[in-house]
Amino acid sequence: MRQTQHVLQDMAAVINIEGISRGEQFAEHGAIDRLDICAHAYILAEWIGPTRIPTEFFTDELASMRLIECSAGAMSAIRAISDALPTPVREEELVPGLYVPNFIEHVSNWARTTPVGATRPPTVAEVIGVLLRAANTLALHTPHAPAA
């Protein structure tokens, strides 16, 4: 599995060039297919090329979420982004009394919607800033192997 810090740095580089999707699905077709921030995490964590974007990302939100949830690398990156956001992650009840945080919804909604009291969603530069802060935080707090 790729290091989360590197996935986040790669996300920042790719989003700087391609932007992000703010649509209802995790991807939208165009001259360059635009991806939701969480879809970027999946593609880069799993080393999937731009011509192999899962078709579910374009058509099925629930299947897209399940696919992303199955990627430990993508979820690690999404969790790091969620931790860097100024808002708390919402928990959802899976069964009565069992609540789990919904990191995908937290990160995806932050990147594509206008916050309360604001006039626009975060800019691409603001999204990149959060990605790089999350990567930097991981770099500072991840123990490194001792030199041989």
What does the model show?
- The protein is mainly α.
- The protein is 53% helix and 9% strand.
- The strands form two sheets. A two-stranded antiparallel sheet has the order 1-2.
- A hairpin with a 5-residue loop joins strand 1 and strand 2.
- The longest helix is centred in the C-terminal third of the chain and has 18 residues, at 124-141.
Helix content: 40-55%
Main beta-sheet annotation: 2 strands, antiparallel
Report the order of strands and helices.
HEEHHHHEEHH
Broad shape: globular
User: Residue ranges: pLDDT <50 for 5 or more in a row?
Assistant: none
> Strand order of the main beta sheet, please?
1-2
Tally of extended strands? Answer: 4
Which structural class do the helices and strands define? Answer: mainly alpha
Note the gap between the termini.
23 Å
Which whole number gives the mean pLDDT?
92
Backbone CA Rg? 15 Å
Q: How much of the sequence is in beta strands? A: 5-15%
The count of domains is: 1
SS element count, helices? 7
